Amino acid sequence: MIYFDNAATTWQKPERVYQRVDEVLRHKSGNPSRGSHSIALDASRVIFKVRKKLADFFNIAESSQLVFTKNATEASNLIFKGFLSKGDHVIISSLEHNAITRPLYRLADEGVIELTVLETEVGKEKFLANLREALTSQTRLVALTHASNVTGNILPIAEVGTILEDKEAALLVDAAQTAGVVPIDRRELRADFLVFTGHKALFGPQGVGGFYFNTELDFTPLLEGGTG
What we know:
The chain is of the alpha/beta class. The protein folds into two domains: 14-57, no CATH class; 64-213, Type I PLP-dependent aspartate aminotransferase-like (Major domain) (Aspartate Aminotransferase, domain 2, 3-Layer(aba) Sandwich), CATH 3.40.640.10. The chain is built from seven helices and seven strands. The chain has helices at residues 15-27, 38-57, 72-83, 98-109, 124-134, 157-164, 186-189; strands at residues 66-69, 88-93, 113-118, 139-145, 170-174, 193-197, 209-213. A seven-stranded mixed beta sheet has the order 1-7-6-5-4-2-3, with helices on both faces. Strand 5, helix 7 and strand 6 form a beta-alpha-beta unit. Helix 3 (72-83) packs parallel to helix 4 (98-109).
């Protein structure tokens, strides 16, 4: 079989991924952080190690700033609905994935936010100039894909981060397509939110993803329960 749909999900996975998932399901499937017996502690250690590896992978100072979700879509929805308030202005690009556009268009249609879409087919310098012009005192968030899942275009995220450095607006980077393909340094990009998924170029199973968030920002969690 020839498979070319890796922008949607990578397949097949490396053999050790199958082996590791099988090992954890068979031997370390206790409820992490919810028990003191050995299997629960083993499950907690697995998650702690993954959290630490991801923090190192993305150059994140504190692994506690990582939140695990089912995928990038859940991650972006949690961010938008936990960070944005009525009257906020949000800027995105014309390359955004549905995980970004659909929840934001809904918030805009409901009158919660004002949304500006920047055209990307104008060249880097014009794109950055248009971004500067679009920023207002109400701009709360700039949400940009790192790379398009359709065209492969990579946006100038580092330059955007520099523009926003002295602004009130936060920067969300959707790294679903680039994590595992393009080196990502969260601090170099100056990202306040970094969204990723496990089932693409990180070669993990489906149903895993997450995001980094700057814990200095006001953020309202959607869910409570379990351990917090």
